[in-house]
Structure formats: structure tokens, C-alpha cells
Specification:
Elements: H1 30-50, H2 53-59, E1 69-71, E2 78-79, H3 81-93, E3 97-110, E4 113-125, E5 137-151, E6 154-164
Parallel strand pairs: 1-6
Antiparallel strand pairs: 1-2, 3-4, 4-5, 5-6
Amino acid sequence: MSDAPPNPSETPDDPGAPAHRAGTGPAAGPAADRVAVEAANTAFYAAMEEGDFDGLKELWLDDGATAISCVHPGWPVLTGRGEVLRSYALIMAHTDYIQFFLTDLRISLAGDTALVTCTENILSGGPAEDGAELGPLVGQLVVATNAFRRTPEGWRIWSHHASPVLTGPDGDPPPGPPSDQP
């Protein structure tokens, strides 16, 4: 194996690629880290949409020492790799269709930790009824925080917390506080 840095054209697009091969790490700088964290976050939602449990499993932190956690809307806190991954297996098994439209995405970096906040505009469908190809579609608005940690394998999800956005009588979410970011 060569000690030479990888050729950028050969660098994998996989957000799970090792940090030194994915162009991230302390020496790469915050801009590269921001790109890598966003790619890992995007891969998380893509794995859910595609029903790719193995891909989803690889995106979660697995260092043998740090407990991961997850809060799905309306669920209690799930802690530990087994509980968290089992929840995703259940969701995938009972959801015929899911699509995420992410808005209000913000990334904050602090050393080897990153926080991603976003609004998940979710369109999902359950089992088909009366021979239809897809069950009724349901929309949901959820705000999420995804915490990532840098590992030798790339950025991995440490915690996912999602909460439903309450709507007013007219169906619109209540006004939020003014934004302090552009």
C-alpha cells in the first residue's frame, strides 16, 4: 500500500470513506469537513428512502465505546446500537414508501463533532389497499438534529433526534424565532 495521498479523481464519493481518503480531517479544513458532513447526512436520508438497512447501519457510529441514541417523533429515547438499528429495521419493514425533502439545513462544526439541524418534509405511504400499487400518502413536518463524530472511517451518526412540528388551526406551523444566520 502506498503512503502517497490519493489522487482526487480516485477519491471515493462514499461518505463512509476513511477521513484521509475522503479529503476530510483536521488538516483538510472546515470547508472540506462541512462538505463531508453534508454528504454523510444526505447518505443517511438516502438510505432510508431506498430501504438500504446495511447502508444505514454503516453510517452509525460503532466505536465499541460510545452509545448511540435516537428519538423518532413520538418515540421514547432509544439508546445503544441494537435498539437504534432495530427501530430502523421496523420502520423500513412497515413503510412502503418514504421521501425526505430537507430544508433549513444548517451545519455546525466543533473539532471532531458536527451538528446538522434541518426540517424533514416527509412524504410516506403505508401498505396498499384494494389492490392499489401504493397506500395513501401522508405528509409530515419534522425538525431534526443529527450529531456526527469524525472517525477513521469518516463522519458517523452519533445521535438523531426528530420532533414533529405542531401546526396551527390553519395547518401552518407557528412562527419561529427570527433567524440569526443568513
